[in-house]
Amino acid sequence: MTKSLKIKLLSLLILFPVLIGLSGWISAKADTPVLRFYRPSRGVHFYIPTPSYTPGATVSVGGPGDNFEGVGWYEPSSGSTIYEIQNPNSLEIMLTTSSAELYSLERAGWNYVTSTMKSGGSIPVYRLYCSGSGHFFTTNAAEKNALVAAGWSYEKIGFYASKAGIPANKIA
């Protein structure tokens, strides 16, 4: 092997990891707002990651009669997987990072929907439950405490967000 070929191979070995690292850095996406809706006809909340959402813009996702409640939280560009599962009878949505909880709910008849959302960052997303209303997720500790005072059960920190949510009445 010639000296010139050795230098080229060594250069590739050094540059390859750098190029791979840069490609990840260049393609990284920004935090994604996860919009929160309430469906009064079913008494359930649901959450839709919406990368194209601009605060203050008219919201055209959700369905007729669904109430837009603001940005629930901001999803980070990377992190642990959040599984979305739906009860086929009540249409309640459950979000969890636990694969054991996912499998348990599937065995109980719930339907796996997707696992496109991520958990990461330092903002806790609190998980609450109320019979008849299902699960509810919020980054707002005051909202969590008010729901607990109203009879909801605080279950745990469900996962983490990169930024806290913004109620619809606070969005400029």
Oligomerization status of the protein chains: single chain
Report the radius of gyration as a whole number of Å: 21 Å
Order of helices and strands: HEEEEEHEEEHEE
Based on helices, strands and strand pairing, what is the structural class? alpha+beta
Q: How do the strands of the widest beta sheet line up side by side?
A: 2-1-3-10
Strand percent estimate: 35-45%
| Low-pLDDT residue intervals, each spanning 5 or more residues | 3-28
Shape: globular
Q: Kindly state the percentage of residues in helix.
A: 25-40%
Major β-sheet annotation: 4 strands, antiparallel
State the separation between the terminal residues, measured CA to CA. 65 Å
Instruction: Give average pLDDT, whole number.
Output: 79
> What is the number of E strands?
10
Number of H- or I-type helical stretches: 3
Domains counted in the coordinates: how many? 1
Write the layout of secondary structure elements.
Blueprint: H1 3-27, E1 32-39, E2 44-49, E3 67-75, E4 80-86, E5 93-96, H2 99-107, E6 111-119, E7 123-130, E8 134-138, H3 141-149, E9 153-161, E10 163-167
Antiparallel strand pairs: 1-2, 1-3, 3-10, 4-5, 4-6, 7-8, 7-9
